[in-house]
Amino acid sequence: MPKMKTKSSAKKRFKLTGSGKIKRKHAFKSHILTKKSKKRKLKLTHDTLVHKADEPNIKLQLNLK
């Protein structure tokens, strides 16, 4: 049986933390930034964790158990 491939889109977007949680970047930080406040853009810069409900799907895409 062949090995399962990792989804390329998922491996580019998500990283695993040391404790096994999944880290992601915020959306809406790439363009049309003039109308967004400094505070809002600063908050979008920092990484955050994936919601618990979405973790199983992402782990499947990354071939984690």
TrEMBL record:
A single GO BP: translation
Name of the protein in its database record: Large ribosomal subunit protein bL35
Top-rank taxon, per record: Bacteria
Entry-linked InterPro entries: Ribosomal_bL35, Ribosomal_bL35-like, Ribosomal_bL35_CS, Ribosomal_bL35_sf
Gene name of the encoded protein: rpmI
Molecular function via GO: structural constituent of ribosome
Species: Polaribacter aestuariivivens
Family membership noted in the UniProt record: Belongs to the bacterial ribosomal protein bL35 family.
Keywords in alphabetical order: Ribonucleoprotein, Ribosomal protein
